[in-house]
Amino acid sequence: MSSDHGPEQDIESDLKSILTLLFEDSDAIQKTLVPELLVSLGSEITLTRPADLHKIIDESICVIHRWSPALQAHFIAGHPRIGETKNLSVLSSKEQSGGTSAAAPTPPEVLLRLQHLNACYEHVYPGLRYITFVNGRSRATIAEEMEDKLGISRSLLPDQPPVESLTPVEANSQPWLAELHRAVEDVGRIAKSRLEKIEREGLLQLRK
User: Which pLDDT belongs to residue 9?
Assistant: First the structure.
C-alpha cells in the first residue's frame, strides 16, 4: 500500500480499500466510516500489522452501532443477499459457496427457496437485509436458519408461505433494532474471518 500522496491521504485511501474488502462496498465507508475512524483513532491508526486491522474492525463496528438505524441498514445492504450468484465479490462468492463447486453446485430449488426467504425476511423486517456469518455452512443450512428466524416451516417450496401472510415488524421497534444490531455484529464477524483468510493465504499487503 503506497502512493505519491501525503501520509494522511495514504492512510485514508488504504483504510477505504481494506474496509471495502472486509465489509463489502458501500458509500458509507468512504463518506462516513473512514472519516469517523480517522477522528476516533487519530494517531493510533497504523496499518503495519494484522493486529492493527483487527483493532480497526472492532472500532469500526463500535462506530457503526452509533450511526442512525437508517445508515446502519444502508451499510449492511452492501452485502449481497444470501443465495445470490451474480455480481458477487470474490470473497462473497467463496463464502456463499459453502463447499459447493461448479461440479456440484447449490441445487436450484435451494436457490429459489432462498430467493423467497429473502423476500419474506425483507417483508417482516422492512428496510433490512438478512445478514449471517456463513462460516462454511451450505446455502441449504442457511435456508433453514432463515426459516427459524421467521418462524416458518421447513420447506423447499419456492412460494410458501405467501410473503403477504407474514406480519411485518415495525421499523425502529425494539425487535427491528435488535435484528439490525445482530446483522452489524455479523458483518464484523465476517470481516474478521475474511482478514484471517487473507492472512493465511499471504494476500495481506501492509505498510512497511
Answer: 66
How far, in Å, CA of 166 to CA of 59, rounded?
Answer: 36
What residues contact 78, with CB distance under 8 A and at least 6 apart?
23, 24, 25, 26, 28, 29
- Whether the bond into 161 is cis, omega within 30 of 0: yes
Helix, strand, coil proportions of the chain in percent (round to 5)? 60, 0, 40
Kindly compute the dihedral angle of the four CA atoms of residues 46, 51, 54, 60, in this order, to the nearest 10 degrees: -20
Grid cell for residue 3:
502512493
Segment 28-57, tens digit of pLDDT = 999 999 999 999 988 777 777 878 899 999
DSSP state of 98: T
- Residue 103 carries which DSSP code? S
Amino acid in position 205: Q
Dist CA 43 CA 62 (whole Å) = 18
Q: Enumerate long-range contacts of 63-69, CB under 8 Å, 24 or more apart.
A: 63/33, 63/36, 63/37, 64/33, 64/184, 64/187, 65/181, 65/184, 67/28, 67/32, 69/171, 69/172, 69/176, 69/177, 69/180
d(CA 154, CA 34): 41
